[in-house]
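Morning, I've got a small favour to ask if you have a moment. The fold is given in discrete form, as structure tokens running alongside the sequence. I'd be grateful if you could look everything over and explain what you see. No rush at all, and the record is pasted right below.
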Amino acid sequence: MRATSQPSSLSLIVSSYLADWRRWIGKMVSGYALAGGFMLIGAVSILVAIGVGVAAGFHAIELHYGIWTAYAAIGGAFALLGLLGLVIGRVLLARPAPHVPRGSRQAAMLKRAVAVPVAARLIATSRSGADTTTKALAAGAVILLAGWFAASRFRRRPDAIRDQQ
């Protein structure tokens, strides 16, 4: 085992993809934490507002309209505030989640990591005076690599090709 070994291209690609997953999970967790925090702040604020205003409001309504009307008004206000908090929390949780990382950047890195050593080996082999069959196979491999790069760079949208009936 070498002491100063470089990490392989595959391990770099895998670690890059895992870093994308960590960022995606971080966005998901922070989104839920934000929604939960807003719901908690809303619930605490409702409780504080209730504690401050209930006694004064109940007393004022009781003096003007009677005790049963005061109970109905205060209970209705609590129900309205509770429903409002639940609706706002639900709206925050219903937001669309961020997209799962696809790995297209890592696929491009893998293509380059495979193509460069293969092309270098083919160029070195063609300079050493290989036979005609080897040269033909090398040319075919280079054409396939170029086609692969071109197809991945200029690929069509999936809905662009439709069956004509």
